[in-house]
């Protein structure tokens, strides 16, 4: 099943010089393709829309502050079961619980600063791709 997913390299990944490391892991996965890629800063409206499901939770405000603390890299990745696949490469949300070999397990520090976002379902992917890449066909 060919899918598309939205991946964000969070400000910690950019600051720490891990763009190439993380994108390399995605690129090396056979059969996956990067079809859009952009370095940008996120405004409050985009962040509110993107993380709307977490509004009201205790970690929401610090999360939004962190996500606007520097540029991020947004990319569209296409390929076989790529939604589940990138989540697997990323590992669990909490880097301490993430196994070595996963992106978060290898490089993550605290739960908020976990380097990468990846859409968690087909519905999320569709919504997030429209938000970040409205011109995508
Ligand atoms: P993401 O949405 O960024 O891909 O991460 P996720 O699905 O693994 O985790 P989610 O539950 O959607 O949480 C979104 C992001 O919020 C930060 N977070 N901080 N307790 C905390 O301090 C806490 N919990 C979550 C993380 O940056 C997480 O990726
Ligand atoms: Mg999430």
UniProtKB/TrEMBL annotation:
Residues the record lists as binding ATP: 10, 59, 87, 93, 104, 114
Entry's localization field: Cytoplasm
GO molecular function terms attached to this record: nucleoside diphosphate kinase activity
SMART domains: NDK (SM00562)
Cofactor(s) listed: Mg(2+)
Segments forming domain Nucleoside diphosphate kinase-like: 2-137
Main localization (coarse): cytoplasm
Catalytic activities: a 2'-deoxyribonucleoside 5'-diphosphate + ATP = a 2'-deoxyribonucleoside 5'-triphosphate + ADP; a ribonucleoside 5'-diphosphate + ATP = a ribonucleoside 5'-triphosphate + ADP
EC number annotated for this UniProt entry: 2.7.4.6
Keyword Lipid biosynthesis: no
The UniProt record lists the keyword Metal-binding: yes
Gene3D superfamilies: Nucleoside diphosphate kinase-like domain (3.30.70.141)
Biological function: Major role in the synthesis of nucleoside triphosphates other than ATP. The ATP gamma phosphate is transferred to the NDP beta phosphate via a ping-pong mechanism, using a phosphorylated active-site intermediate.
Family: Belongs to the NDK family.
Subunit structure: Homotetramer.
Protein name, as recorded: Nucleoside diphosphate kinase
Organism: Streptomyces cremeus
Lineage, top ranks: Bacteria, Bacillati, Actinomycetota, Actinomycetes, Kitasatosporales
């Amino acid at each position: 099943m060919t899918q598309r997913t939205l991946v964000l390299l969070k400000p910690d990944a950019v600051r720490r010089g891990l763009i190439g490391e993380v994108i390399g892991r995605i690129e090396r996965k056979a059969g996956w393709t990067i079809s859009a890629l952009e370095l940008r800063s996120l405004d409050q409206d985009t962040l509110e829309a993107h993380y709307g499901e977490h509004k009201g939770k205790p970690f929401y405000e610090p999360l939004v502050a962190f996500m606007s603390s520097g540029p991020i890299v947004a990319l569209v990745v296409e390929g076989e079961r790529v939604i589940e696949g990138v989540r697997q490469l990323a590992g669990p949300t909490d880097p301490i619980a993430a196994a070595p070999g996963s992106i978060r397990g290898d490089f993550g520090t605290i739960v908020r600063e976990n380097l990468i976002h990846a859409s968690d379902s087909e519905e999320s992917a569709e919504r997030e791709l429209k938000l970040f890449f409205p011109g995508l066909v």
